């Protein structure tokens, strides 16, 4: 069953355009590149804690709590390592414990009292829509914006369209 066609998914160039836009924060660039390169569900990515992200010499290994199967899976990721390492360096020092342990990877700051909390779906989705508008990106189909969930399928679909085998793509 085909749930998304290539015209319903952002291209690698569009993801790059959004995440390198001068108004894009280090955290959001890291978030969307991680989401895109790993094909994670948005809730899985938003639920990451720093203890779930393990850096090694060549890649980052991400422990993902599979929200559909109620289990954990591990995903190696070479492409998002640089983005995640950059975000880890920029993580606010005012958060007790810093980018470690059970602290959430993706955060937002309250405008009322300055406290930090886990980034929520609605805020991440709105940022994705705002970046599409700032970059003048419009889906090639009739929709006004790419859906937030489109990042899950974009990378794997673009790899398949460029000849990557299904066996390699599923790793």
Give a verbal description of the structure.
- With 171 residues, the chain is of the alpha+beta class.
- It has 7 helices and 5 strands.
- Strands 1-2-3 form a 3-stranded antiparallel sheet, with helices on one face. A two-stranded antiparallel sheet has the order 4-5.
- Strand 1 and strand 2 form a beta hairpin.
- Helix 2 packs antiparallel against helix 4 and helix 2 (26-38) packs across helix 6 (150-161).
- The longest helix has 14 residues, at 121-134.
- It is globular.
- The two termini are 20 Å apart.
- Residues 166-171 have low confidence and may be disordered.
List keywords for this structure.
single chain, three-stranded antiparallel sheet, two-stranded antiparallel ribbon, 39% helix, 5 strands, 171 residues, alpha+beta, disordered C terminus
**Uncertain segments:** 166-171
Distance between the termini: 20 Å
Number of strands: 5
Q: Quickly count the helices.
A: 7
The biggest sheet, with number of strands, parallel, antiparallel or mixed sense and barrel status, is:
3 strands, antiparallel
**Range of helix content:** 25-40%
Using only CA atoms, what is the Rg?
A: 16 Å
Large-scale geometry: globular
Protein structure class: alpha+beta
Bin the strand percentage: 5-15%
Sequence-ordered SSE layout with sheet pairings:
Layout (H helix, E strand, L loop, with lengths): L11 H8 L6 H13 L3 H5 L6 E3 L4 E7 L4 E7 L3 H10 L16 E3 L6 E3 L2 H14 L15 H12 L4 H4 L2
Antiparallel strand pairs: 1-2, 2-3, 4-5
């Amino acid at each position: 069953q085909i749930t998304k066609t290539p015209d319903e998914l952002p291209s690698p160039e569009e993801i790059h355009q959004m995440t390198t836009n001068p108004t894009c924060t280090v955290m959001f660039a890291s978030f969307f590149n991680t989401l895109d390169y790993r094909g994670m569900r948005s809730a899985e990515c938003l639920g990451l804690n720093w203890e779930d992200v393990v850096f090694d010499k060549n890649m980052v290994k991400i422990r993902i709590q599979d929200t559909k199967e109620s289990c954990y899976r591990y995903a190696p990721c070479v492409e998002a390592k640089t983005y995640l390492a950059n975000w880890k360096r920029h993580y606010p020092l005012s958060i007790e414990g810093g980018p470690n342990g059970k602290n959430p990877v993706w955060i937002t700051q309250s405008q009322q009292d300055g406290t930090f909390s886990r980034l929520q779906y609605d805020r991440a989705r709105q940022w994705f829509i705002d970046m599409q508008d700032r970059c003048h990106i419009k889906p090639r189909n009739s929709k006004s914006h790419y859906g937030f969930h489109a990042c899950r399928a974009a990378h794997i679909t673009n790899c398949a369209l460029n000849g990557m085998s299904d066996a390699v793509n599923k790793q």
